[in-house]
């Protein structure tokens, strides 16, 4: 079960890191807003020194903070927790990345909602 939580944690980290260039390329409104919100929540947890709930859950399932698991899980653990990097540097990198993502709303604005799109017109007509 702990490795399942670790896998979910890994997917979320990938989403937060790789989601930024994907969001910029497609410029999808909801994706960018959700991505930025999740990143802001993670950054806030890190600034306040609160551990990630998934980390707490994983450690509780393992009943220790020392990792012992399969080869794949071991590498996912190293990537998620950035072994060998000072914790203060991780917080700084996270905040810098969050600022970069937030600033992208200025230098790559969201596409305006198209109120005259055929899909929107059909949806509005269906409500009458």
Report what the structure shows.
With 128 residues, the chain is an all-alpha fold. Helices cover 76% and strands 0% of the residues. The chain has helices at residues 2-26, 29-48, 53-62, 71-81, 87-107, 118-127.
Which terms would index this structure?
0% strand; 128 residues; mainly alpha
Q: Distance between the terminal alpha carbons, to the nearest Å? A: 50 Å
Low-confidence stretches: none
What do the pLDDT scores average to?
82
Number of strands: 0
Q: Tell me, briefly, the overall form.
A: elongated
- Helix fraction by DSSP (H/I, runs of at least 4): over 70%
Radius of gyration: 19 Å
Q: Could you describe the largest sheet, including whether it forms a barrel?
A: none
Domains (count)? 1
Number of helices: 6
Structural class, by secondary structure, is mainly alpha
Quick structural overview:
The chain contains six helices and no strands.
Blueprint (SSEs and pairs):
Blueprint: H1 2-26, H2 29-48, H3 53-62, H4 71-81, H5 87-107, H6 118-127
Helix pairs in contact: 1-2, 1-3, 1-4, 2-5
């Amino acid at each position: 079960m702990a490795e399942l939580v670790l896998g979910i944690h890994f997917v979320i980290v990938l989403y937060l890191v790789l989601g930024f260039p994907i969001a910029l390329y497609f410029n999808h409104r909801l994706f960018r807003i959700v991505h930025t919100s999740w990143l802001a929540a993670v950054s806030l947890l890190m600034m306040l020194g609160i551990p990630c709930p998934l980390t707490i859950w994983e450690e509780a399932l393992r009943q220790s903070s020392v990792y012992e698991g399969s080869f794949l899980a071991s590498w996912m653990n190293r990537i998620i927790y950035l072994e060998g990097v000072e914790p203060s540097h991780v917080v700084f990198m996270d905040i810098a990345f969050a600022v970069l993502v937030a600033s992208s709303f200025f230098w790559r604005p969201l596409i305006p909602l198209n109120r005259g799109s055929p899909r929107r017109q059909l949806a509005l007509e269906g409500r009458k």
